[in-house]
Amino acid sequence: MIDNSENKEPVKKSNFIHSQIEKDLQEGKNDGRVHTRFPPEPNGYLHIGHAKSICLNFGIAEKFGGKCNLRFDDTNPSKEEMEYVESIQKDVRWLGFDWEDRMFYASNYFEKLHEFAIKLINEGKAYVDDQDAETISKQKGTPTRPGQESPFRNRTVEENLDLFRRMTLGEFDEGSRVLRAKIDLASPNMHMRDPIIYRIMKAHHHRTGDKWCVYPMYDFAHGQCDYWEGITHSICTLEFEVHRPLYDWFIDQLKDSDYRPRQIEFARLNLTYTIMSKRKLLELVKENYVNGWDDPRMPTISGLRRRGYTPESIRNFSERIGVTKVDGMIDVSLLEYSVREHLNKTAQRVMGVLNPLKVVITNYPENQEEELDAINNPEDESMGTRKVPFSKELYIERDDFMEEPPRKFFRLAPGREVRLRYAYFVTCTDVVKDENGEITELHCTYDPASKGGNSPDGRKVKATLHWVSAKHAVKSEVRLYDRLFNDEDPSGHKDVDFKEFLNPDSLKILPDCYVEPFVKASKPLDHFQFERLGYFSLDYDSKTEKPVFNRTVPLRDSWAKAQQNK
RNA sequence: UGUCCUGUGGUGUAAUUGGCAACACGUCUGACUCUGGAUCAGAAGAGUCCAGGUUCGAGCCCUGGCAGGACAACCA
Q1: Model pTM score
Q2: A71 neighbors A38 (Cβ within 8 angstroms)
Q3: Length A13 CA → B15 C1' (Å)
Q4: Which of A295, A314, A502, A556 has the most Cβ atoms closer than 10 angstroms to its Cβ?
Q5: Taking 70 as the threshold, does the pLDDT of residue A4 lie above it?
Q6: What is the pLDDT of residue A251?
Q7: CATH number of the domain residue A247 falls in
Q8: A500 catalytic residue (yes or no)
Q9: pLDDT tens digits along A138-174
Q10: Are A355 and A439 within one domain?
Q11: A47 marked as part of a ligand binding site
Q12: Does residue A237 have a known ligand-binding role?
């Protein structure tokens, strides 16, 4: 293992797939080549689960000096769209991976696939079945009961050839006929019971247009595409495990050398409090439960990006969770830990007040202003310092003041002295309230000798507060996100729809926040730490007059935690 | 009452050819601190699904159970 403790990236772990590849290499398989592929279907946006697969596949290529292709599995035109193929490319690139000149589509192979089907017919290994879906399904039997042969199973090669030709020409209606591989109706594996390999679909395909009236099924396309691309290790998720004998069967019909791709399955990612099904994510988007695929509450790559996650943090997360065949559930807190870890080291610090409470420094000269030095990132000296304006009227966080502070509340209270970060020690002298008894303003005095945050007499103060000068503050909107679902496993309940668990408080918009002027120059997706609060990132919805910040994740907060446990 | 897969602290992953069950997250202490952050130090927490067997020695090998998951779209 490589010692990369310097950059603190998690050490790259090995896993069972790496071991199997090493073994294949030792045995001299496939001329020592390692070639993987990431094969999304363009029927939705990529999510964090895909990120795991992307990191795995591209990571293997990197580790073994091989290659990794991007291949769109576009065999079902009724669900696939160009918008998705574009978003997928963007997301893979953003994650930091490069397929170079190897971007392919299953539809690139439609011609070859069709020829291969004809070859199987000629060899008596495929036949046209005239029955409808329901009949075929019934004949297939059940996992515990063998299937029965179709009455059309023993048609002549000539008849099959003719029928398939006419299916291809569009002479028949959708659903009226299919092409099936002739394998074994009695197989204990349902996928070997004469699987359907071509169906009639008169849909417009996003790439081939109206050229085809028949489209290959997944099982008939995937392995063959792997074969033609020279893939050596075809890595997919556990649910395809039972497909493997069929995958191998088609490869056996195709191969003419020692080379053969090998399918290896691993457990897909499950995260607590989130759903990973593209179908369900699409439902949230279509029915407006969220604001699009890139809503920052979505587990999509584009949602995480907009939320303020970094590619590094997602890659580190993938590395940390490992790769196995155990179907488990990862705690989201591990994902959150990964962003905090990265952002702590890289994010520009800034002061911002979410729930403002006005403070007047009564002994500060009326029209005076000054600029104080603030550190941009205490974890990274090279990021330097900046100036923060200070004046008589400030905003502090409402939560940072309590009129009757409980034990262990160290922040501001009547008569108490605290430090304003990088500025002065201040002492609260008066609490101003409105007729309803609501606190509207605080009066404080400051100690001019404590400029910069230290008092010459060495007296200590228990808390440091963040603040913003009222006159210089940039009024901003801040969007606070919480988990989208309030159940650990929203889709794990048999009789309850996952939408029942939608968290009504997953988005809280704070329209009147104040942030220090430094943020004026920022661009969407810039990352900040609002000191003492959390990590925030500028949203695309920002206007120059009014920036909008998304909270990526709050800082760990031992005070809040102690309160919760009460 | 089929086939295939999987069972290791709360969670996720490790443990060369059998050799004192390790690491990360989380949790709890304490130190430090101009972020109640970060950092640092420490602690608790599993005897590896169960039962037999082989062995000086089993998480790992053998036998038999048990539990969970996948498979019966003209989806991928």
Answers
A1: 0.96
A2: yes
A3: 14
A4: A314
A5: no
A6: 98
A7: 3.40.50.620
A8: no
A9: 999 999 999 999 999 999 999 999 999 999 999 999 9
A10: yes
A11: yes
A12: yes
